[in-house]
Each structure stands twice: as C-alpha cells, then as structure tokens.
Design goal:
CATH architecture of the largest domain in chain B: 3-Layer(aba) Sandwich
Distance between the termini of chain B: 94 Å
Shape of chain A: globular
Number of strands of chain A: 20
Strand content of chain A: 5-15%
Radius of gyration of chain B: 28 Å
CATH architecture of the largest domain in chain A: 3-Layer(aba) Sandwich
Distance between the termini of chain A: 75 Å
Largest interface: A-B, 33 and 36 residues
CATH topology of the largest domain in chain A: Rossmann fold
Number of helices of chain A: 23
CATH superfamily of the largest domain in chain A: NADH-ubiquinone oxidoreductase 51kDa subunit
CATH class of the largest domain in chain A: Alpha Beta
Radius of gyration of chain A: 27 Å
Number of domains of chain A: 5
Strand order of the largest sheet of chain A: 2-3-1-4-5
Number of domains of chain B: 4
Oligomer: heterodimer
Largest sheet of chain B: 5 strands, mixed
CATH class of the largest domain in chain B: Alpha Beta
Helix content of chain B: 25-40%
Strand content of chain B: 15-25%
Helix content of chain A: 25-40%
Strand order of the largest sheet of chain B: 2-1-5-3-4
C-alpha cells in the first residue's frame, strides 16, 4: 500500500499529549439556542471565575497546555429548551438554565469540592425528579446519538480533537483501502437514504454518478436547510463540521470527483464560519488538497454562502446558484448525476447524509443496519419544536414511534401557557412546508420514510412541530402556504400563481369570506399544483393543505359553513363575549377599550357590543379573570 | 413504419426523427399543444406547464422537457390534462391585466388565443392587486408588467440570442417580475432596443412604442407636407396583417394605402440602401486597399451600432461610418426635398415605415438632427402601418397597386435584399465585383452569402482579390466574432451584423408571427422582388447617380460625408448615477466621486471612501467638498477609480486623493 502522506496517528498522539495534564473539562454549549439565551456570557464568567480562583484554565488548546481545567465551547447539545447548558466532565454533570450568577457556585462546589450544584440540575416538570447526569435525563435516555454523537461534546473548531476521536479514519480508509465501487457498494448495502427530504438511496445516487464518464465531476454538500423550525443540519455543521467534510471527501472518492462545494445558508453565520475554518484546518493538515492520503487523488473544497432563498435547497436551483445564476430549478431529467454543476456529473447530498457516511465506512454497513427499520436503516435527527415541554435537537433510530418522541423525549404536550397538558395533543407537522400532519392515530406508528409517506406526510429533513388542541389547523395550513408562496422561485405557473391563490382561498376561510365553492376550488387547485409544478417545492407545496384537509376536514367546514373556528384562534370568526360567570365587574376592560364597545355597571358582569368591537384584544389583556373570549 | 422507433401519440404511431423533445414530435401528429415558453430557438424552460401530456408509467409531464423514447405511450387530451390547462390559464388570467379591448397586442395575444381555444369561460381566482407602473422611458419599447405572464421568453431571447441580458427575473413568489437590473428603466440599462423581447412576448407585456397619433396629427395638419419612406422588409410582411401569406410582396398596395392615408410622397428606403452600398463599399475598398481598420463592420442595424458602442468601443473605428439607409434617406430628404417639393424645411415631415423598434431610437439620436429637428421625424413599424390602414377602414387586399414616387422611390434589387441577412453583403459584393475587376458583370447573385445560419463565413474571390466575409445575425453571434477579432484569431475583411435573427424581415416591428417558416418566406419575397426589378446593382441606379451629380458630389466626398456618414461614441453601460455620502447641503465647490462598483470595491474603494469621508470631516471641509459613491467609470482594470472635479484618478490611493484635493481646493480659494 502507498505510504500515508499524513499520519493521523501522530496527530492523535500529539493532541492527547497536549491535554494529558487536564483533569477537568467544562463544556459550555455554544449552539444557537444557548447562545441566544446568553451562554457566551456564562462562558466569559466561567473563564474569569476559574482564573480568579487560581485554577489554571485552558480556553483554547495551544501548543503549551499547562492548565488542568479545560474550558471549551461546543456545538448544540440538543436540549435547547433548558439552555444555556453547561456540562462538567469527567463526572458528566449537566447544568441547565445557567446564568452568569451561577458560575461562582459551579466553580466552588463542582470544580473545587467535587459536588454537583443541585439547584442547577435538570428537574422533570411532571415528576419533579432531578437528574445529575446527561445520559440519565429522559430527553437524552431515549435517544441514540450516532450522527450527533460528538456534536455538543467536542470542540468544533479543533481538528485535533476530531482526529483524536477517530476522525478522518473513514476517509483515510476510503482513499487508501477501498475502490470507488466498493465505497458505493458499502453505502448501498447500508441502505442509507437521503436525509434532505427525498429519502433517495444514497448508494444508488453515487453508483449512478460513478458510472458517468466525464473528465470532471463534483460533489456538493447541500447545507441550505430552510424549513421553518428546522436546525438539524445547522447544529451538525456548527457542532462537528469535520464530520461533514469527511463525508464529503468519501463521496468525492466514491464517484471520482476532485472538487467539492459546501453550499451553506448565509443565514447561518456560525455554521459558515465553522465550516470555513474546518476546511482551512483540514487543508493545512494536508487532509484536503493535493494527493489525499497519498492516494494520488486531489480534493479541493469550496465553501459557498447561499443566496438567501429557500428554493436554493432544491438541487438544480442550488447548482444554478453556485454557477452564479438566479436560484431557479430546472426540469429533470437530466439529473445531476448526468448533468449537474456546470454540466458535469454531480452528487449532491444533504449535511446529515454526509455526516452519516463516515460512520458506515468505519463500522460497516452491517452494523449500521442494526439501527432503524429494514427500509430506513439508521437514525434520524429531528428538530422538536412547538407545544412540547422539551424542545430541542434529537436523534432517534428509524422505527421510533411518535409517542416516544413527543411524550418520552419531548416530555409531553404543553398548553399555550407552557403547562403540561394531558390529552393536549392534536397533531404534529412533520417535514416542514413540504410535509403534512400526523395525528393521534399515528402516535404509535413506527416512523420511517415509507410509513410516514403512507399517511400523506413526509419525513422530510426532520422538522417536528407539535401542536396542541388550541391550534387551528386551517391557520397551520395557511402558515405553511404563505411560506411556500413567499419562497416560490416564481418560475412555473402552478407554483407561483397556484400557491398565491391557494393562500387567498385559505385567507377567505380564516376570515369568514369562504363560500360553498371555496373548498372544492381549493382541492382542485391543490391537485393541479401538486401534479403540475416543475420542482419539488411546488409539487409538495399543497401537502400541508391536503393533509390537514384529510384529518381535520370538519374544522375547515366549521370555518366555512358555521363561520366558527373550533380552536378559537381565528379572530375574524370569533364573537367577542364577556363570560358572565367569570366577570367581576371590575371595569378594567371598559376603561381600556379604545372604541367604547364595553358597557356595564360596577361589580356586575360587563358586556361587549360585537358591532362596535374591533377585536384589538386590549380588553382581554386587561382582564385579570380570563373572562373575555373571542377577541 | 417501424414501431420500435415510434412514440404512440393518442393512438397513432409517430416516428422519432431526432426531435429534441416530445412537443416537436407531437406537432408532427398534427397536434398543436398549447405553450407559452417553448421556442425552438431558445433553451427549454418548462415553466408554463401547458404542454403537459400523460405518459404511461410516468404520469403527467411537460412534453417540452421530455425526450421522446421509442415505445412511449402518450396522451395529449385527457380530462385531467384539459382541466389542468384550463386551471393554469385561469391562474394566469387572474394575474393579468384583462383590458383586452384596449390592449395594443389584443389581435396577436397568445394568452387571449389560448384562453379561447381551451374554453376558459370564467376566472374563479382573485385578480392581482395594485397596478404596476409602465416603463415608457425609451423611444423604442413599452414594458407593461401588468400584462406579463412570466414565461421568460424575453429574458431568454435577450440573453441567449442577443447576449445582452438587459432584463431578467427579480424577486420571488407572487412578487416575481421581469425587470431591468435594479428595477431601473430600460433606457438606463444595456438594452439595444432590438425588440426581440417584444417579438417573442406572447402578451402585451413588451410592445413597440407607437407613434401613430403624432403621424395622424401631422397628416391632418394642412401646413405640413408628409413624405414617407418604406423599408425593404415591410413590403413582404405587411400583407400578413390582412390575411396574406408571409412573403407576399405588396409594395404597390402599400403605396396606394399610404396615398389614401394622406401621405404626400411615397419613397423607398431601398433608394437610400443603394446609396449605402456605394458609400459603404467604397469605404470598404479603400480600407482593403490600405489594409487598415479591417474587418469593416456594417452599420445599417441600429441595435448593433448601440451594442458596439456599449461593448466594443475598442472596435468602433472598424464600424463603417455610413449612416443607416433610414438616416441617409432622412438627411437627404431634409436637404433636397424642400426645394424639390417647394415646401419650407420646417413644414416637411419625414416618416419612415420600418420593420424595427431600434429605428425609433436611431431616429432620435442627436447625431441625426439638423436645424433643431430630427432628419426622420417619426418612425412607424410595419404593425403600426397596418393598424393605421385598419383604422382608416381601407380594404387593403382590394387596392389597385400604385407606383412609388421619383426620385427617392427608385431602387435596384441590391437595395431591396438589404432586408434579409446576407443582403447587405451581397449588395456590396455586386458593387465591389465590378469595381475591383473593372468589368461589367451580368451574373449578380451571390447566393452563397444567403441563408439562415447564425454565422456564415465565406471566402469570395473577386478578380484577383480574395475577400473573407462573415455574416452574422443575432448579437450573441456578433459577440463571438468580436471576441475572435480581439483574440487575433480571424482575418475577416467584412462583417455584416444584423441584430435580429433573419435580418430586418424578422424585426420586432413586423406583424406578430409564431409561424416558424415566416422568416424564410419573407426573405424569399425580397429575393423574388430583386428578380422582378430591372436593375440589380446599386451602381446602376440612375437616380442615385443623379443625386451624386446634383447634391452629393463624389462618392465618399465632402458633401456625401456630411449627409451620409456619422461617428460613434463609447456608451457608458451603467448610468452615471451616484449619491452623496455626506449630509446634503448647498452646492459644494469640489466633488469627489468614488467608484463602488464590484471591481473597484474588491480593490479597496470602500476603505478609500471611508478615509476620504473621515478626512473631509476632520478638516471641516463638509461645506466645500461633496463626497459621492458612484458606479462604473469603465476602467475596471485600473481601479480603484476616483474622480475629483474633472480629474479621473486610476489605481487611486488616499495620498493621491489628498494631494489632488489640496491642489483643487487651492484653486477654489484662489
């Protein structure tokens, strides 16, 4: 075998030696959610406090690491709901909702006296039980973090740490011990399916592209994650960028490409920065560039910021965008495998897909298949959001049920006030604006690509928005339709004009203007948009409407025929009313009403005149007794 | 028929014969699938979704994007397809300004035609809100975004055929629109006014800017004498507006109609084309003899001239200095007709009937004015003439042909074939042949330069002289030739450029035609016309010869130069706009403009601008010095570029700015 140009073992040894003196590690989550909640201030406070207590602190690993406490920032640890998160190793204590004021206690009690700070531990809101260590918390206990494994743990900006944990070993193997055909076969055997939404078998995609004869081929990492509420790819790029790059290298090797692009959403500045740094570090280390691992093959990797359009996540639009054109999809065929970037055979994979690849190469397709279901092997990351107690980034094997995700990991459904609501579950929107809703009857459905598709929804890229009983499903459909309408590239008629008119029809329903023909027209139009649109964005745009219609038709009909919103969310349909049994006659509402619609004697129930009321909601805010409804 | 190479279309086997898509193949089955965005000479776009078909095993697909495969079973007319097509048309109509009765494109609107054809009887969707403003910034074209159906035909035609890209899509979703860069007016961007966008537009979203009303006014003004010139291409196309086939020559009927409309004298632009041949060929032979400024580019096409001024300023000396036939006619008419017709110059109105929208722009160029008035007062397109004839209720087909007026109505065949691509070259060859050999030649046809191929390179031997000609139509093809010339990889002597594919016969002012054969038929009409005339060589035109005797003097002489030649100037591609980065105040003594265009920005102009602003503020110069950010000085390779007063500094540094500013301030104080 050709001798390796770079020695991963040596790099690993060097890294381990450099941190041999370190006895403790404090990891502050610097994922987007935690940063938004102030985790960087916590980091700074920790830095000061540790130094102030005379502990030698190493913030960044340099050549000389004399300290014994390593303070580092990690990517998203997943439990965003409880952020800012601070983990202390080796004990594995997880502190939640940490504020700069808590730092003194952490240093005093944990770092110096080796005891957990009890008040900062996670406490289950339903049982009241508190958990000291990460892996004990129900949110984490039910997960299987295979792709996200190191994300939230390692320092994403340190290539040494990545290598020390076995990073780039899969790439080395792919370049020095495997033929392209073997790699494609291995990935095909693993049953890996594209995580970007389509679920297309990755091995097949690679095999098709490998078979194309061309002097030039490209691989592209599609990091233009854009579904509302989705942040899986972002977290992986921010938390473990080298993993993505390693997957991209293996893909390049598998199809015979020597040039790679990472197309990252510009709205993810941290991901852009981390991926750029990772590429630069990998180049400097001799991993990317000429003669990769002494294989004689080159790989040059470009990082490109997205143009700010959702549709650029569609592969042909994405390639147009890289080429400097307006991000508009073009008809397929030809598929990118035949004619992709600049007309050359191209493989384009999603971040998570590529993040999974090194795992398969290292552990083998057989091992990989032990997770997940027969047709959807492996794990899937989901961004769990909405009316659920524990929002955050999760990873579970395919085949996990919705019930496990929402109730065990998610901790149950909450009401609009944030309290756990038993029997509060109404639906979950899966697959973002291209997806649909799953309802009570699907709670025990093992989730995989095929089972979800049968319900009329899609797994998609992994957005899970939980909705409680107070959610109006017409408004949900309206929300997603407005999103796709705004994000339509405007090229084909059904998507551009059709989504606009679907939105107008939904608007009519919500505002009580719908007639007996509205629903029929909406359904006809939905079908014409679904069948006739040029690209996936348009073809799937009617899904939220069709799916909500399928499971909540009566809710639509109530809006249209009875001019009533069963969830009480559609203001235009609500009749303003003061509930006499709750009203104390305090007069607070009367004084606040800007149009004088409220009348009533002191200490006697007040009344609203619906003809005068403008539904501004001021009265309801003023009322301390929740006596006012319908505004 | 071999079933193994057939597609089964609605129950009939249709042979695959290299069609690039199903749509073309289905047309062979005598089925015309509706489409807006498919044009055989543009890239496949697949956006209007009207050409959908059902294919067994594939479901509903657009036929324009599907490659025919043997054994495919295709249905073109199912209930689902009909309902989807109707739905899409309804959606388009909802977003379309529906003032059909008052729309200039009404009689040729494809949306209107397809809506009727597909049986759309109601629009169940909400109409678009709000009126978008029209772009009437230029003399050639009007853009009405309210009528745009976003099929992208104009965008692709401008980019793919002309290589200009003056318009493109902007914004997303329902806000998507076709617009010039940064939402500017067409007059502020690189548009060359060829109007190809208008000729491919299926609706009235881009149309030639009409001048019918001022012409009516002139005609009804007793003090005015209105004369008119008819371009060659008009006579083979106008008949299409009255149900005649493309290419039918109707010169005599046009003359009769123009007389009925009230025009005083009816002349022929082909007369001026004969003049052009003599002047241009003479200029060419002089250059060829000296071996300088070759190749010579033709200058008859105003869109090409504007293109050259914008993109090929380095090659402007190679462009023939001859005015176009329209303008030669105009200056000659204004110079000679007042005397001939006995009218005051200011009472003479020259109208031209042109197949072209760029001619409207050309007529308004400042170079083509004398005595405060334009040489050509109004330019009507073929379409507009047809409309005037209709407005007057004239039964065009029943008219008895009449003859053109002398002397400016007399032409040779050489002046007529100008209207087709290759025509100018052939006419010049007919002159050059005799001039170079000194022998009268009876065989006049140079059919090798004819044809519809976008770029035709021909080697022609005239006596002892070898000439290398390139004939190009479509400005993208011209661009390719220009690049070859710049790279020094070609040695053409003469390059004929026409912006419109096919030449003037396919101009944007011609009657709207979606017939693929129309171009060939119109061109053939011109060649037939040449055949039926007695004279075929410009040098034999006796009235041209007389004109030289009485008015112009020698070919290429002083007076000829005055009336028949012109000059060109480099055009700034980016409108020279800027904005002050300081607080607006009273007029400042010194103005500093820093280019913040891409190239200068990359070379650090932003930092430079910041330093200048700081400098001005620190030294309390805000009352005297205005600092402006501006766009391109067209010296991108020498950036950053900064202009202080009248001084343009390249490779500019802050030190350079400071010293120049100091010296200018010193002058101001002094």
């Amino acid at each position: 075998m050709i001798e390796q140009a770079i020695n991963l073992e040596a790099m690993k040894r060097h890294y381990e030696e450099s941190r041999s003196a370190i006895t403790r590690r404090v990891i502050v989550c610097a994922g987007t959610g935690c940063v938004a909640n102030g985790s960087l201030k916590v980091f700074a406070a920790l830095e000061n406090e540790i130094a102030g207590r005379g502990l030698a602190v190493v913030v960044e690993l340099g050549h000389d690491c004399g300290g014994d406490v390593l303070l580092s920032k990690s990517g998203c640890q997943g439990f965003c709901q409880a952020g800012p998160l601070v983990t202390v190793e080796p004990e594995g204590y997880l502190y939640v909702h940490v504020k700069p004021d808590d730092v003194a206690d952490i240093v005093e009690q944990t770092l110096i006296n080796n005891r957990p700070v009890d008040r900062l531990l996670y406490s289950d809101p339903t049982t009241g039980r508190s958990y000291a260590k990460t892996h004990e918390i129900p949110f984490y206990r039910r997960q299987r973090r295979a792709v996200l494994g190191d994300c939230g743990n390692i320092d994403p900006e340190n290539i040494g740490e990545y290598i020390a944990r076995g990073g780039y070993e899969a790439a080395r193997r792919a370049f020095t011990q495997m033929r392209p055909e073997q790699i494609c076969e291995e990935i095909a055997a693993s049953g890996l399916r594209g995580r970007g939404g389509g679920g297309f078998p990755t091995g097949k995609k690679w095999t098709l592209t490998l078979a194309e004869k061309s002097d030039k081929k490209y691989v592209i990492c599609n990091s233009d994650e854009g579904d509302p509420g989705a942040f899986m790819d972002r977290s992986l790029m921010e938390g473990n960028p080298h993993r993505v790059i390693e997957g991209l290298m293996i893909a390049a090797r598998a199809i015979g490409a020597d040039e790679a692009y990472v197309y990252v959403r510009a709205e993810y500045p941290l991901a852009v920065q981390r991926i750029r740094k990772a590429v630069a570090d990998a180049e400097e280390a001799g991993i990317l560039g000429r003669d990769v691992f002494g294989s004689g093959r080159d790989i040059f990797c470009h990082v490109m910021e997205g143009a700010g359009a959702f549709v650029c996540g569609e592969e042909t639009a994405l390639m147009a965008s890289i080429e400097g054109l307006r991000g508009m999809p073009r008809p397929k065929p030809p598929f990118p495998a035949q004619s992709g970037l600049w007309g050359k055979p191209t493989v384009i994979n999603n971040v998570e897909t590529l993040g999974t690849v090194p795992l398969i190469i290292l552990e083998g397709s057989h091992n990989y298949r032990t997770l997940g279901t027969a047709n959807s092997p492996g794990t899937k990351t989901f961004a769990l959001t909405g009316h659920v107690a524990n929002t955050g980034l999760i990873e579970v094997p395919f085949g996990t049920t919705l019930r496990e995700i929402i109730f065990d990991i998610g901790g149950g459904v909450i009401d609009n006030q944030g309290r756990i609501a038993r029997d509060g579950f109404k639906a979950v929107q899966i697959g973002g604006p291209s997806g649909g809703c799953l309802v009570e009857e699907h709670l025990d459905l093992p989730i995989d690509f095929d089972s979800v598709k049968k319900t009329g929804a899609i797994v998609g890229s992994g957005g899970l928005v939980v909705m409680n009983r107070d959610t109006c499903m017409v408004q949900v459909a309206h929300f997603f339709m407005r999103f796709t309408q705004n994000e339509s590239c405007g090229k084909c008629v059904p998507c551009r004009e059709g989504t606009k008119q679907m939105l107008a029809l939904l608007d009519d329903i919500i505002h009580g203007r719908a007639t007996t023909h509205t629903l029929e027209l909406l359904e006809q139009l939905a079908s014409a948009v679904q069948i006739g649109s040029l690209c996936g964005l348009g073809k799937t745009a009617p899904n939220p409407v069709l799916s909500t219609l399928r499971y909540f038709r009566s809710e639509y009909e109530a809006h249209i025929f009875q001019k009533r919103c069963p969830a009480g969310q559609c203001k235009a349909l609500a009749v303003p009313e003061i509930l006499a049994e709750r009203c104390k006659g305090c007069g607070a509402c009367l004084r606040k009403c800007p149009v004088g619609a409220i009348t009533g004697e002191k200490k006697a129930p007040h009344r609203i005149d619906p003809k005068v009321c403008i539904k501004c909601g001021t009265c309801a805010q003023a009322c301390k007794f929740n006596a006012i409804v319908g505004v | 028929m071999n079933n193994g190479t057939c597609v089964h279309v609605d129950g009939r086997d249709i042979q695959i014969e290299g069609e690039r898509n199903l749509l073309e193949l289905i047309r062979k089955a005598n089925i015309d699938l509706p489409t807006f965005c498919y044009h055989s000479n543009l890239s496949i776009y697949g956006a209007c979704r009207l050409c959908i078909v059902e294919i067994e095993g594939m479901g509903v697909v657009t036929s324009c994007t599907t490659v025919p495969k043997p054994g495919m079973t295709v249905r073109t007319n199912t209930a689902q397809l009909r309902s989807m097509r109707k739905m899409y048309l309804e959606l388009l109509l909802a977003n379309h300004h529906q003032g059909c009765a008052t729309c200039v494109k009404s009689d040729a609107c494809r949306l209107r035609e397809l809506a009727i054809r597909m049986g759309v009887t109601e629009v169940r969707f909400k109409p678009a809100q709000g009126e978008k403003p029209l772009d009437t910034s230029n003399p050639a074209l009007v853009r009405d975004p309210n009528k745009c159906i976003l099929c992208g035909d104009c965008v692709r035609a401008c980019h793919e055929i002309q290589g200009v890209g003056a318009i493109d899509f902007a914004y997303r979703g329902a806000a998507t629109t076709v617009a010039p860069a940064f939402g500017k007016d067409l007059s502020k961007v690189d548009c060359v006014y060829c109007g190809l966008c208008a000729s491919v537009c299926p609706t009235g979203a881009i149309t030639p800017r009409p001048q019918i009303d001022p012409v009516w006014n002139a005609l009804s003004d007793n003090r005015k004498t209105v004369v008119v010139q008819i371009a060659p291409a008009v006579r083979v196309a106008l008949g299409e507006m009255f149900g005649l086939e493309a290419g039918v020559v109707t010169t005599g009927k046009i003359v009769a109609a123009l007389k009925m409309l009230g025009f005083g004298k009816i002349y022929d632009t082909s007369f001026a084309a004969d003049l052009t041949v003599l002047e241009e060929a003479n200029e060419f032979l002089a250059r060829k003899t000296k071996g300088e400024r070759l190749p010579q580019f033709t200058s008859c096409c105003p869109a090409w001239v504007k293109y050259a001024e914008q993109y090929c300023s380095d090659l402007l000396p190679n462009v023939s200095s001859c005015r176009s036939p329209q303008q030669m006619f105009g200056s000659l008419a204004k110079a000679t007709l007042p005397e001939t017709l006995g009218v005051a110059r200011e009472d003479l109105v020259v109208v031209s009937i042109m197949p072209c929208t760029a001619k409207k722009f050309e007529a308004q160029r400042p170079e083509f004015r004398a005595g405060g008035a334009p040489d050509v007062d109004f330019v009507l397109t073929t379409q507009e003439l047809g409309k005037m004839i209709r407005q007057a209720g004239i039964q065009f087909n029943d008219l008895t042909p009449e003859s053109l007026d002398l002397p400016l109505g007399f032409k040779t065949g050489a002046g007529v074939i100008f209207g087709a691509t290759g025509g100018v070259s052939e006419a010049v060859l007919r002159y050059a042949h005799e001039k170079l050999t000194g022998v009268r030649v009876d065989h006049v046809d140079f059919s090798e330069v004819r044809g519809m191929q976008g770029t035709r390179v021909k080697q022609i031997k005239l006596g002892d002289v070898e000439l290398r000609l390139a004939i190009v139509h479509g400005l993208r093809n011209a661009k390719a030739v220009v690049e070859q010339i710049r790279a020094g990889t070609c040695d053409y002597d003469f390059v004929e450029v026409m912006a419109c594919p096919g030449g003037c016969i396919a101009g944007a002012g011609q009657p709207v035609s979606f017939e693929p054969e129309a171009k060939q038929l119109r061109a053939q009409g011109l060649y037939d016309c040449d055949k039926t005339l007695q004279l075929h060589k410009s040098q034999e035109n006796p009235y041209v010869a007389k004109c030289y005797e009485t008015t112009l003097g020698a070919i290429g002489g002083h007076r000829a130069h005055e009336l028949l030649h012109t000059g060109y100037k480099s055009r700034k591609r980016v409108a020279d706009e800027g904005f002050s980065v300081l607080e607006p105040g009273t007029a400042k003594a010194v103005e500093i403009s820093v280019c913040v265009g891409t190239s200068c920005y990359l070379r650090g102009s932003q930092q430079l601008l910041q330093k200048i602003v700081n400098h001005v503020k620190e030294h309390d110069l805000e009352e005297t010095v205005d600092v402006r950010a501006t766009f391109c000085f067209e010296a991108c390779d020498k950036g950053p570029s900064v202009r202080i007063g009248e001084v343009l500094l390249h490779h500019c540094t802050f030190e350079m700015v400071r010293s120049e500013l100091e010296s200018q301030l010193a002058r101001v104080v002094a």
